[in-house]
Target: VWFA domain-containing protein
Amino acid sequence: MSVKLQPAGVSKCPVFPTDVVLALDTSDDVSQLDCERMRDILLSLLMKMGISGSNCPMGAQLAVVSYGNGTDYLVRLSDRKGRPALLQAVRGLSPAGSSGSRHLGDAVRFAVRHVFKRLRAGPLLGKVAVFFQVGWTRDAGSISTATLELSMLDITAVVVTFTEDHSLLDALLMNRNNRFHLYVWEMESQQRAEGMARCTLCCDQCLPAPECRWGTPRPLQVDVDIAFVVDGSHGGGADLYRAALTLVDAVLEEVEVARQPSASPPPRGARVALVTHTTPGFWPGGGRSPVLEGFHLTAYGHRTQTQRSVCEAVGHPLRGAPALGHALEWTLEKVLPAVPLLRRAQVLFAIVASETSSWDREKLRTLSLEAKCKGITLFVLALGPGVGTHELAELVHVASSPWEQHLLHLEGVSEAEVTYALGFTRAFLNPLKSGTNQYPPPDLIEQCGDPSRGDTPLQPTLPVRRLPKHQCGKSALTDDLKALEAKGSFREEDREAAMTSITQQEALENYEKSGYDAEENHQKDPAKLKKTGKERSPGNVYDPCSLAPVKGECQDYVL
Model:
C-alpha cells in the first residue's frame, strides 16, 4: 500500500523516520493569546511534516503532551494518529485546564523516560522533542538532570520560549553537539517555524542544509584532574574488568588531555590517572598497597600514550578482595595531592563490578564523605550483576549529589549498554564548568563541619559530541561482549528495583566519522591493539549515511 505522507509541493519532511514529542505549556500563567500562538505554531509544523499513521518506518510518528505542575498525554506515540486526528487534537487546545506552576525539567524527563520508551527501529531513526515555554521556570536542578538524560539518548531537543527571561541553564543552551536548540520568540513577528523545522524536525542527518551544519565537534576542553579507580578484584571477574577499562579508554576520547601536565601553571585540558584494585593478599594494616597504579596525573601529555597504557592494563586483573574504600583512601593520599597546582575540578571516577568486602564498608563511607567535603566529585559506574540492590543503596551515599547525575548501574555490557554508559559519562562531564552543581552541595556542608571547606564553584562549559572511533575503545571488546551475552552471563532485572538512576533504552547511537586527531590514531601501536581486538581503520567506521538506500516493502499494519 502506498501512503502519501505530505501535501503536494512540500519537500519530504522528515527525511528519515522520526519519532516526535510536542510538549505544550499549560501552566496557570498561560494566557489565551499564548495558547493560540502555541496552537498556530503546532498546526504549521504538522502541515509541513509527513505523518505516519502506522508503525511503518516512514515519516513522523507524533506524541503530544501538556505540562505544568505535571505532565499529561494528549496523544501517545502508540496511538499512531494520522494528520486529521492530530490537527483536531491541537485545534482543541485550551488554557482552561491549566495545571499549576511550570516544571519544564519534569516534562523533559517525562518525555525521555515514558514517551520515548518504545521506538521504531532503524539506524537513522530520528528522535526530536519540542518543548514550549511561555514563562520563567523554577526547577533548575530538574532541568540539569533532564538535560543529561537527553544527551545520553541522542534526542534532539528544541525549546521554543516566548520570553527572554527563560532561566534555562548554560548546559542546555551552550551545546555544540547539534542536539539542543533554543528559539526565543517574544513577539509573534519573530516566529520562524519553517526555519526551526528545517534544522530539527526536517533535518537531513546525512546531507544537512548549509545553515544547519556546525562542523565536527572537538574533545571537551575542561580543566579537571580525573582519577579512574577501576575494580579488578575477584568479585567482578576478568570480563567485567576488561569492559571497565574499555569504558575508560572510550571516555578518554571525550576529553582534551593536557599537553604538559606537570607544567606550572598546568595547561588547559584534563590530567588523568588510573589505579586498579585490589592487590592479592591485601589486608588493612598489613603494609601492602591496596591498588596498582597504572599511571599518575602527570605521566602523559598525549591522549594516545594514555590510551595505550590503559590497553596494556587490560590483561592484568588483580583478583584481590574487593576494597573500594581503601582504594579511594590510597588515591586521595597518593594521587590527587601528589601533583602541583591541583585543578579546581577534581573527579574520582570509580567503576565498580562487585560488592565491597564487609571490612571495607566503614572505610568506604568515611572516605567518600571526606572526598566530597573537600569538593571532589565522586562519579560511580556500577557494572554487571555483582552489584545488587543493597550495594546500590550504599553507592547512592558514596556518589556525589544529586546522585541521579553521578551514579549509573548497568546490568550487562551489551553494545547498547556500553553506548548508554558513554552517553551518560559524556553528559556528566559537560556541566563541570557550568556551575550547575556545587561541590560539596549546600545540604552536605553542615555535615562536613566547615561552611567553607572544599567549596569550589565551577565555571561554564560547552558540551560536545564525540564518539569513540578506534579499536581499543569500544570495538575491541565487541567479540567478548557478544560471547558474554551468548553465555547468558548477565541477568535482566527491573531497573527501578535495582535503583538504576536512569531508565535505559536499547537504542544505539549513530557513529560519525571524524578527521580530528587522525594522526594520533595512526600513531597507536598496532601490536597492542591486536591484543584486544581487530585493528580498526577509518574505512571500517560504521556510518549509516554511507550505505546504499534500500527500498523495502512496508504495509499499513498495527502491532
